[in-house]
Structure formats: structure tokens, C-alpha cells
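Archive transcription. Copying these from loose printouts into the bound notebook so they stop getting lost. Printout 1 of 2:
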Amino acid sequence: MVPNINGEHIEDIAKAVKEAGACIYNIIPLIPQSELSHETAPVCQEIDEARTLAGKHIDVFRHCQHCRADAVGMLGGKDFGDMLYQRRIAGSDTFSHG
């Protein structure tokens, strides 16, 4: 079962972003907070299923480590965050849903 927010529409959304000109799609897992704190965070299997369904229609970005607001640079390249921020946000850079 895919995640409940947009889960039933994931293929329709993938088709729409492809038709709008996108060449890759990033499905970002929900972190339940504020108005959505009553929702359940998806587990790895649900995220993988959503990405697989979307992947029928468009390339899907699968290197998710939960988006970091301080992330600057390209995957596999240089992380420019240290050049822009005087101190790094404490935490693990390895959290991933698959």
C-alpha cells in the first residue's frame, strides 16, 4: 500500500509532471508535523512502492535522505554547505528511506 497522502494518485501525478516537461520526479516522504501531525509517516516499503508506480511514467529520484534545508551542491559532487554556513546543523547525513 502506498502512502495515504497522494498515494492513490501517485501515477496520475507522475504522468502530469512528465507531461509538464519534467524529466525526473522526487517523491519526498512525509514528516508528520503541524497540521499533518496526525498522519502516519510512510515506511520504506510504502515509499519504494510509490516510487515504483511513478517510475512507470518518469525517472524517479531515489537518493532521498529527507531533504535538508542547508543542502547545496550536486549528488556525487562537492557539498558547498560548509562554505555558506558558519556552523553545520548537528545530525546524521545518512538517514534514508531507501
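Printout 2 of 2:
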Amino acid sequence: MISSPARRRRCVLSSVSSDSHTWNLVFLQLLLEEHGYQVENLGACVPDDLLLEVCLARIPDAVVISTVNGHGRLDGIRLARRLRAERALARVPMMIGGKLGLQGTADAASQAELIAAGFDAVFEAGSGPDVSEFLAYLGAASAPRAALAGPAPGGSA
């Protein structure tokens, strides 16, 4: 029996609605594609409704939010709550990173708020995690859903 090649993991990449920066999104798209991900880059200033619509239509293996304008915490909390309110997206790994506050320094309280709102991981500029740590986390978090979901309906346990 010939086995089919593994499906590339799909990642939706976006900024928050108030962030017009694109260089961070281009960098992340290239990085993710280099590491085998199929990336749908929604770009800058993405309205929450559009991101939600795309995620519901695609059910990606991961959602990555990047921001550099300093409003990532506020926009990210709102966004995470919207996505997590959808049952179909409840288990999709979500991470946010970049400059999340106007101070530009890592803030443990802000990171905790983002996690409480629904993000699985926060990679804040100045907090120490490097690209390899982000990729390792993403790789583990976006493992094939079949392995995470347990036995198929009607199958034996």
C-alpha cells in the first residue's frame, strides 16, 4: 500500500484590527512556509469579523496573530474571546506575539489576560522567547487534530 504524503498544516496569519504594519506578517509568512506550513496571510487591519469568517470556513491547524502597534493586548483580548466563543474554533491553537502594549516591554499581567481570554501562547517583544521557541510551540500545538481528538465517532476506544 502506498501512503499519501502528509497534509501540510494550515495556519491563518493576521494582525489585529488596529494594526497597519505588514513587514512582520511577511516575515512570519515566509518563516512558516519555510517550515512546511500552508499560510493564509490575511494582512493588516483585519476586522474581527473577517478573521472569524475565514477561521470558521477553513478551521485551520493554528491561528497566529502578530502586532507591532502596541494595541495587541486590547485588540487581542477581544479577538480571542470572539474566536473562542465559536465551538468549531474552541480547540484551534491560537497564539499572539509582538509589541502588545504601548510600553514596549514584557508585561506578565497582560500576558495572563491574553491567556485567560483564549490564547494558548503569548510571545511578547522583549520577553525572551526567540523564533525557535515559537516554532517549537507552534509545531507541538498544531499537531494533527486526529491525534488530539481521540477515537473517531463509532470507533473503538
